[in-house]
Structure prediction request, 134 residues.
Amino acid sequence: MTSIDPEGPTAASPADLPDDVLVVEDDPLIALDVSETIVDFGVATVRTARTVAAALQLIAERAPKFVLLDVGLVREKSFAVAEQLAIRKIPFVFVTGYSGDGKIPAAFARIPVLTKPYMRDALRNALRAWRAQT
Prediction:
């Protein structure tokens, strides 16, 4: 788990972005790149988790405002995290490098999907859409 918590007046998040984002991503380089990009957007707090257990622990400790949830983690799928997010009404998007039908359960069909590789603008748009899910 990694936490990027900038301090000072620049830590304020723009009004159209969540101020606390959890990135659930098993690839440490991707997680670092995404986290740094999100901080560059002006998001105050970005936390990362590489496993379902770590993500569930972070959510239990402090519910994030928004989650970027990689579907396929090293040896597991992240749907248990998605279930907790849905129960807690925490907005999220799935992130996946796979395409095609049948990858995401029907219960989550309404959840937006950000397909890897994605551009910086697509990531920013996913973050901006967080209020629409609340």
About this structure: The two ends are 26 Å apart (CA to CA).
